[in-house]
Design a protein that fits this description.
With 179 residues, the chain is of the alpha/beta class. The chain has helices at residues 12-15, 28-41, 55-64, 96-99, 114-131, 143-154, and strands at 2-7, 48-51, 72-74, 136-141, 168-172. α5 packs across α6 (143-154). The longest helix is centred in the last third of the chain and has 18 residues, at 114-131.
Length: 179
């Protein structure tokens, strides 16, 4: 099973190195990124799409302008982690690798842990494998979720994984790890 994963387009908060709120929209660059990656996506065979319920992900998907017959599911399991009190905080005020690390709850108790994010993403991907084993699926989501997806396929690591806005990441679902 092919899984294509894309992070939403750029936002002003992200561009200014701030933890975004759920309400943060795409900026002009993010809109352009989404339109451009949408053109590339038309080269791929996609059977179904899963998208985060957060507006910037849904707006990104809308701008792809893909075939209207592809089923789309809005799924809370690929929503960005709940940032709690860290919304609008500058990246530089966080221990970035710890904040996005598997054991993030040891230092950042006020935010959804990456361990929790990984568990919900693992459950989601396991369900995809059962339901859509022979299909190609596109996921439109967020940086923290893509980090958890990458852990699922490559194993959990503390190496920095900084995903780009509107870049296509490709995985084969059969090659997964689970803890």
């Amino acid at each position: 099973m092919k899984v294509y994963v894309i992070r939403h387009g750029e936002t002003n908060m992200g561009k200014n190195n701030l933890i975004a709120t759920d309400k943060e929209p795409l900026n002009e660059i993010g809109i352009s990124q989404a339109i451009n990656v949408g053109k590339n996506l038309r080269k791929f065979h996609i059977d179904r799409i899963y998208c985060s319920p957060i507006e910037r992900a849904k707006h990104t998907l809308e701008l792809f302008n893909l075939d209207k017959n592809i089923p789309i599911v809005i799924d809370n399991r690929i929503k960005e982690r709940n940032m709690g009190i860290y919304e609008r905080i500058e990246f530089s005020k966080l221990d970035w690798d710890v904040f996005w690390g598997y054991d993030s709850e040891e230092k950042y108790k006020e935010v959804e842990s990456m361990k929790s994010v990984y568990q919900r993403v693992s459950n989601f991907l396991n369900e995809l494998k059962e339901k859509h084993g022979n299909e190609s699926v596109l996921l439109v989501t967020h940086g923290g979720i893509i980090r958890a997806i990458d852990w699922y396929f490559r194993g959990i690591t503390n190496q920095t994984f900084q995903c780009e806005n509107c870049k296509i990441y490709e995985y084969e679902l059969e090659n997964s790890y689970d803890i």
